[in-house]
Amino acid sequence: NQKYLFEANFRADASSRFKEGNRWGYFPGFSAGWRVSDEEFLKNSEVISNLKLRASYGTVGNDALDTYFEYQALYSLGYNNAGEPGAIASKLTNPKLTWEVNKTANIGLEFGFLNRISGTVEYFDRGSSDLLFDVPLGLSSIITTITQNVGSMSNRGVEAQLNVDVVKKKDFVWDVQLNITSLKNIITKLPSGLPITSGTKRLEEG
Asked: In Å, how far are 27, 40, 46, 65, 70 from 100, measured between CA atoms?
């Protein structure tokens, strides 16, 4: 009767950007909900029109890289010496390259009172691991970066939304909505704890 809800899914993705052995990524997810307001002890409440608890957890992979064969050593043509053709290395090989993984969990409460006041309160936590970064190799290198899985990051916070029907008539409705979000974004791990500088941006733990 739509009182207890559960959903599960599973993804298996492959990408030519990673070498065989690291090519496949497996990403599960699930969600669950409980409509408390449909239970017998609240079903006939004149005050509580909606009350629902929900939670979910899921993972997804990211392979957003510059080329379709990112793990391979790549070369750029056009560096000719007089009549002799020439090429130069443009990307270093990295056979260990693999999926960046985003893991997201949240728990929320949906509520409604008197059929005029409604809203949600939700806590979310998204962690990213094996982050795909172009790691600097130094200005003296012919190739200045190498793509690696080098760290992890955390995004967590609370989001709340409140809706109030100030006027609710047959031919006219006036409602007010308020939305508040708190977000904290932290890099939790980098290789050897060293910062990464890219252009005007500096990335470091914490």
From this structure: 11, 46, 49, 11, 14
Query: Cβ distance 150 to 187 under 8 Å?
Result: no
Mean pLDDT of 141-147: 82
Distance CA 62, CA 126 (A): 14
Q: Is 189:152 a contact under the CB 8 Å cutoff?
A: yes
Backbone angles phi, psi at 41, to 5 degrees: -75, -10
Four-CA torsion 20, 21, 22, 25, nearest 10 degrees:
100
Q: Which has more confidence, 82 or 98?
A: 98
What does 14-53 look like in DSSP terms, one character per residue?
Answer: E-TTS-TTTSEEEEEEEEEEEEGGGSHHHHT-SSEEEEEE
Give residue-wise pLDDT tens across range 104-131.
Answer: 999 999 999 988 899 999 999 999 999 9
Check residue 18 and give its pLDDT: 94
At residue 193, the 3 state secondary structure works out as: helix
Mean pLDDT of 147-152: 89
End-to-end CA distance of the chain: 47
Rounded-to-integer distance, Cα 100 and Cα 24, Å = 12
